[in-house]
Amino acid sequence: MKAHTLDTDKKEHRGAFIRTWGTLMGFILLLTLFSVIRPDVFPSARNLQNIIEQVATLAIVASGVTVVMITGDFDLSVGAIASLVGIVCALLMKAGMGTFLSIILALGLGTTAGLLNGLIIAYGGLSAFVGTLATMTAFSGAALLISKGTTVFGLPEQFSILGQGSVGVFPVSVIIMVLTLLVIYLLLEQTTYGRRLYAIGGNEEASFLAGIRTRGVRLIAFGISGFFASLGGIVLTSRLASAHPQAGSPFMLNAAAAVFLGMTAFREGEANIWGTLLGVLIMGAMGNGLNILGINTYAQSILTGIIIILAVLTSSLAKKKA
Questions:
Q1: Is the pTM above the cut of 0.85?
Q2: pLDDT of amino acid 121
């Protein structure tokens, strides 16, 4: 009887270990696989730096989405917000407004868009999926309308620092990404607000009965998502040296995929910032490796969809076992 109990405990311990660290081990295996297949390109310092620079904007946007998804909500509008903010920021600068003021106003617009999502969902009673699908459509339409469907070029040279500049050997975009991750980590792990987010995600009704103003917490979460979506959109615009009304569209799918992947790591079935970073890195490494191998983008989209399905299934199973 005692031996049977010990065997059961060992199996449970192994299962918990795999659920916590399995995604990280999968990432290491992915890096190893691409390094073996293309040892002349993939593991080079330059290529690894390229991967980190390429995922910086996605990590910024996905960090904000993480906050929303902790509560059990969802934000489909982040890509549209990023595109709209990039267009507005570019047009303000071309109109003669200073670079700094244009960035501040554009960030304010993105944050306001996020708060609008929060009002519709937390106070209006719409589901997060329906609400952000509607605003995504509206924001996308606004970006196309004010840009007349064209790309905006001719941005000030100093604006390019955000997406193309470096401080020593460190790209500015990566520095912004690291600061974003640290801010979100401190918010989630070191503040009362962060604990309330996780409480709502665990059981919203019980959190309300415990005295947490759940609607206000969710409203702020969407505002945070809107802010970091707009920050990601601005950095992307700087990196491209132009603004396109649909430039941020890939963020919607990729940010969700990164957060879902992150829910399979470190915290069983819960969104968390370091898990999201791991998800972003997995997607960046996979995309980079497949490009090196000459796999076309359509096949990569199929793989991304499969990854989302597997991640959601895994996180759901982890929640049931937790």
A1: yes
A2: 97
